[in-house]
Write a sequence for this structure.
């Protein structure tokens, strides 16, 4: 099923070089503070977290993506391989997070705020998550997958995995960060997300998260709304109790102005008296929110290409119950078991 990518890669040899350099994962160097913005009567404003101030080595300099700012526009529909293996052999040593004092401090601060904001708002917003350099490199990796025609029409999973352009009109690809394109910065991003979410799920006094046993997550979904009013109508990620508990999205949109560009994420939260929360998909921002009926949401029409990376974290018992009910393995998002080494 990756043959299309392989063929295009052969014809675009100058675009298909894989990154094999050793990547040292360090916490993002950003000041830690809570920022409250103006609040209206109609909408709830969720404070945004900027991860903790840390001392870290600078990452290798990245290429300037400005010459490719619009990104590729041609996509091809591909079929997902439900049997794609995620083996422990793909857990490369360079992808592992360092356990330095700075990283532990950053994780502890991030975990504390994630728990507090999920309990209070059902949503947590984190700004300056990776830093400009690593975020820009990640965006380049997404564009590389687009150039190799690895994206397909977005599917409505609650509707049997069908493409319904009247419901969602984005283009997506599923990846483990190694295939179809080697994406070390994407893996770095997801490793950070994993560390925050799984630590928050294990600590004491963790509120709502303590009700779940998160033992895995889905594969990584990379999405692009090509512009021209593309959107995703109001929906719930997990209306069928399929195991998905927490949604985590990382945004990659530089110089985004929602007044002109649209594309905001609008959440109709059931956690805080049904308030409406509007999140702009600005570059290097992460949002966490409950995947079930507590957070119906929509992506407003996007007027220029809008990029995001999404993973869902899975509760072991709910996932097993869903499999028993449906008598089929839960594989639309090709889940990863955290009881084994993973990519």
């Amino acid at each position: 099923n990756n043959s299309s990518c392989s063929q295009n890669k052969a014809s675009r040899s100058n675009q298909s070089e894989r990154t094999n350099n050793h990547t040292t994962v360090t916490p993002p160097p950003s000041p830690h503070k809570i920022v409250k913005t103006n609040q209206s009567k109609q909408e709830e404003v969720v404070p945004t977290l900027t991860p903790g101030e840390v001392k870290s080595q600078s990452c290798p300099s990245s290429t300037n993506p400005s010459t490719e700012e619009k990104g590729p526009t041609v996509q091809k529909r591909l079929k997902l391989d439900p049997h794609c293996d995620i083996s422990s052999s793909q857990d490369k040593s360079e992808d592992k997070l360092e356990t330095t004092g700075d990283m532990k401090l950053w994780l502890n601060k991030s975990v504390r705020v994630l728990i507090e904001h999920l309990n209070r708002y059902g949503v947590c917003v984190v700004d300056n998550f990776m830093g400009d350099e690593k975020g820009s490199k990640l965006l380049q990796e997404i564009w590389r997958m687009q150039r190799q025609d690895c994206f397909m029409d977005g599917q409505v999973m609650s509707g049997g995995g069908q493409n319904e352009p009247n419901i969602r009109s984005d283009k997506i690809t599923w990846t483990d960060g190694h295939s179809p394109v080697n994406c070390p910065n994407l893996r770095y991003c997801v490793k950070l997300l994993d560390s925050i979410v799984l630590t928050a799920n294990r600590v004491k006094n963790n509120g709502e998260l303590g009700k779940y046993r998160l033992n895995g997550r889905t594969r990584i979904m990379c999405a692009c709304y090509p512009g021209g009013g593309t959107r995703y109508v109001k929906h719930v990620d997990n209306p069928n109790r399929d195991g998905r508990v927490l949604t985590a999205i990382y945004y990659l949109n530089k110089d985004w102005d929602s007044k002109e560009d649209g594309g905001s994420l609008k959440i109709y939260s059931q956690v805080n008296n049904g308030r409406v929360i509007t999140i702009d998909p600005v570059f290097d921002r992460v949002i966490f929110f409950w995947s079930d009926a507590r957070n119906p949401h929509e992506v407003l029409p996007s007027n220029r290409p809008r990029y995001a990376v999404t993973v869902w974290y899975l509760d072991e018992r709910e996932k097993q119950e869903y499999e028993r009910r449906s008598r089929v393995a839960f594989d639309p998002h090709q889940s990863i078991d955290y009881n084994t080494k993973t990519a």
Summary: Residues 7-42, 50-93 have pLDDT under 50 and may be disordered. The first strand starts at residue 33 and ends at 35.
